[in-house]
Design goal:
Strand content: under 5%
Strand order of the largest sheet: 1-2-3
Structural class: mainly alpha
Distance between the termini: 130 Å
Number of helices: 8
Radius of gyration: 42 Å
Largest sheet: 3 strands, mixed
CATH architecture of one domain: 3 Solenoid
Oligomer: single chain
Order of helices and strands: HHHHHHHEHEE
Number of strands: 3
CATH topology of one domain: Pectate Lyase C-like
Helix content: 25-40%
């Protein structure tokens, strides 16, 4: 009974709080007008207040009253500002809650559209999600995951869905992705132009996706996971694929001109016939990758890892249009690791391989005309029949290398190491071998001419070198 009474009293006080507050304000104002000024005057002046004339006393009381009213006015203004701020904050919170509710509703509706059987409805859902991502930065990562799952689910590799082109279909017969799967291509396009989330960008997981003939020029695919994906004949010109994972991806014929592939991984990826001209591959890891017939004209490969790479008949220089290009345009492979790489027949004319590691590399028949190989490590490399005319090989290490039948006309080998190298039938006409180490080198039937410079104290005649008589265009007896 008593509890109910207190409850009713409390409810009554709540309902009467504003009238009571108004009454209290009136009491305070009246006190400031009538009581408090006289009390303050007596407290401040004490007994001397009695000696004031009536006019002075009235003036003093009025001054105190004005001061008190000004203070009350200031307090009222401050309270007004505070309550206004609280009201705005409450309104903002309510608006945010309403917006979140709208975003949730829009998101749910768009997801429903993605699962619709009609293509137009699915496309509408894709672009609705893009709009939500633009309006709500906090939902960008979630929407990106929805899109990547949509791509993987609607275009898996190997193909297993009804209507997908079979895995062994000739690439010439496969339509572009935007034709055979417009919804998948639309989702990829939205991902490619997405705005990054506020926090650290999450990797786009597009592994094992069928992206044959996708058009993604200039796409933002940084740190994407494309391992095992099929990107044959895809257009990725100028795409941002930094730190992307492309292990075992199929990129035959892909166009990656000017693409940024720094620190990307291509372990055992198939890049046959891919266009990588002007691509940035600094720090990329291509161990076990197949670049047969790939075009790496003016590509940047500083510090790239290419251990065990199959690079047969690779075009690193457009010899047809640029037979002897200026130095700034050469491919830069400084300090690149090409150990055990297969570079048979590779066009590396003019390439910059200073300090590169080509340990046991297969370079039979390769064209290294005017290549810069200063300080390169070619220990155990197979250089049979290679063209090294006018190449820069100062301080290069060619121990145990096989240079049989190689052409080194006009090459500069000053300070190089050729211990136990095989140089039978090699053409050393006009080559500079100053300070070269030739301990145990095999030079039987190697060719030289009067311009060939040998190390001090070395006897080419005893080594079996033949001297070329350029006037008679025949080889005489071993050089003396």
């Amino acid at each position: 009974m008593l509890g109910r009474l207190w409850h009713r009293i409390g409810r009554g006080l709540v309902r009467a709080r504003w009238p009571l507050a108004g009454l209290a304000a009136v009491v305070v104002v009246l006190a400031c007008m009538l009581v408090i000024p006289q009390w303050l005057l007596r407290w401040e002046l004490g007994a001397s207040a009695r000696t004031l004339t009536a006019a002075d006393r009235a003036k003093a009381i009025n001054d105190v009253r004005v001061t008190l009213l000004q203070g009350i006015g200031g307090a009222v203004i401050l309270l007004g500002v505070y309550f206004t701020y609280r009201q705005l904050q409450t309104g903002r919170d309510q608006l945010q809650i309403a917006q979140q509710g709208q975003v949730t509703e829009r998101f749910t509706r768009a997801i429903d559209q993605l699962g619709h059987t009609e293509l137009d409805v699915r496309l509408g859902g894709i672009y609705a999600l893009e709009r939500i991502a633009n309006d709500s930065p906090d939902d960008r990562a979630t929407i990106a995951e929805v899109f990547t799952a949509f791509v993987r689910g609607h275009a898996p590799w190997p193909p297993r869905l009804l209507g997908q082109y079979v895995a062994d279909a000739p690439i010439e017969q496969v339509p572009e992705l935007q034709v055979r799967a417009p919804d998948v291509h639309a989702a990829l396009t939205v991902l490619a132009r997405r705005r990054p989330p506020h926090n650290s960008p999450a990797r786009l997981d597009l592994h094992a996706a069928d992206l044959r003939k996708a058009i993604l020029a200039g796409a933002n695919l940084q740190q994407s996971i494309l391992a095992g994906a099929n990107l044959q004949d895809a257009r990725l010109n100028s795409a941002d694929l930094r730190e992307a994972i492309l292990d075992r991806a199929q990129l035959q014929g892909a166009r990656l001109t000017g693409a940024n592939l720094q620190d990307a991984t291509f372990y055992h990826a198939d890049l046959q016939g891919a266009r990588l001209d002007r691509a940035q591959l600094q720090g990329a890891r291509l161990a076990g990758a197949n670049l047969q017939g790939a075009n790496l004209f003016r590509a940047q490969l500083q510090g790239a890892r290419l251990d065990g790479l199959l690079l047969r008949v690779v075009r690193l220089l457009d010899r047809d249009r640029h037979p002897d290009p200026p130095r700034p345009d050469v491919t830069n492979l400084q300090e690149a690791n090409l150990s055990d790489a297969d570079l048979q027949g590779a066009h590396l004319a003019g390439a910059d391989l200073q300090g590169a590691t080509l340990f046991r590399a297969q370079l039979q028949g390769a064209d290294l005309l005017r290549a810069q190989l200063q300080g390169a490590n070619l220990v155990g490399a197979d250089l049979q029949g290679v063209t090294l005319d006018r190449a820069q090989l100062q301080r290069a290490i060619l121990g145990v290398a096989d240079l049989q039948g190689a052409s080194l006309v006009g090459a500069d080998l000053q300070g190089a190491t050729l211990d136990k190298a095989k140089l039978e039938r090699a053409n050393l006409g006009g080559a500079s071998l100053r300070e070269v180490r030739l301990n145990g080198a095999q030079l039987q039937n190697a060719l030289s001419d009067p311009k060939t410079i040998w190390p001090e104290g070395f006897d080419p005649h005893r080594a079996g070198v033949l001297l070329i008589d350029r006037g008679a265009d025949t080889a005489d007896e071993p050089a003396s």
